[in-house]
Every structure is written in structure tokens, then in C-alpha cells.
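Entry for the shared binder. Reason: the reviewer on the internal report wants the predicted structure included alongside the sequence.
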Amino acid sequence: MSKTGKKAATVSRKARIEELRRAERARERRNRVITITLSTVIVAGLAGFGAYALNRADEKDEQQAAAAKKPVRGEQTWDAKKLGRDHVQAAVDYPMNPPVGGDHNQAWMTCDGTVYTKAIGKENAVHSLEHGAVWVTYNDKAADADVKTLGDKVSRTPYTLMSPVDDQSGTIMLSAWGYQLTVDKASDPRVEQFLTKYVQGSQTPEPGAACTNGLTQ
């Protein structure tokens, strides 16, 4: 090959190499643009999802706050200021059955989702209500299936206790400090409403007080 031909071939190779380099640089630029674009989309998506999740959480908090202010249909109420809170040793003659507050024994019933199959001391249960517990009670009119359903629900719910009260007027009754609800069936949606509202609710005279290490019978 002549010198002119060799020179032309060399120039052609250099041109080809430069073309390949330009193509590689262009490909790298495209990849960077795609990566940046995807990252931006992902970040924006995450930010949008985060904002959505926060909004949903805020809405849920607002709904729960609204529910906490709304009375449970059919519940009875007593003036908490008129319910005594002294510790006494003697039996107390409560004006309602089961009691929803008043003077009580210094020992509380363990109420950490505790299901009692026999009657318990009312003066001790009232002390549990003072700590923010909800007391679920039933008489012999309650169906066995309802008793089991309520027992399962209570056992999964801290700051609750359950026991039979044979001489109560209602089939199933839920009591919190100053509040009481009577229902016929465990499936009544007001059972869940009452528990949600009053377990450690705003009515609690001693919020955060223990429901463990009390009496167990």
C-alpha cells in the first residue's frame, strides 16, 4: 500500500474510533438522563405517597377524635363529680348495678384483658374503672356464643375485664367510669364503639394507672 493509502486508512480508523466514542458518550448521556428522570419520578411518587399516607393518618385521627366526642347510642351517663373516689374496706351500696364509679376497695381487679368466669368484687372492679378499664358483664340470659365472643374480644384488649353479674338487669352490659351501655348481643356494633371510646378514655380519673398485678379473684 502506498503512503497515501496508508495515511487515508489511518485517518479513516481515527474517524471511526471518534465516531464510536461520540456514540458511547451520547449513550452515557441518555442513560444519565433516564436515570435522573426515573429517580425524579420515584422520589416524586414516594413524596406523593408519603403525603397521601400522612393525610390518611390525619383523617383517621380526626375520625377517631370525632368518634370519641360522640355519645354511644343508648348509653347511660352519671356525673363523674358526684362519684366518690375514696378507698374503703366495707361493702359499698352502689346506686347502679353494675356500678360505674364511686368509693371502692384499695385493691383493683387485674384488668389486662382478663376474663373471669365467676363473680368478682364490685368494689375491686370499680377501682379498675378508675384506672380506665371497661368492665364487660353478663347474666344467665346471654347466649353461650355471645359470652365466648365477648371473652375473645376482652382477652385481646388491655384495660378490660369481664365477669358474670347474675343480678344485673341487662343481658350484656359494658361499664366505664361514669358510663354504661346495655346490649342483647355481642355482635351489636356499639360494643366496639364503647370499647374504642372508653378504654383509657377521657373519662378516666387515673389515666395510665396499672391494670396488672391486681387481684385475680
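Summary line for the report: Residues 76-198 form a domain with the Glutaredoxin fold (CATH 3.40.30).
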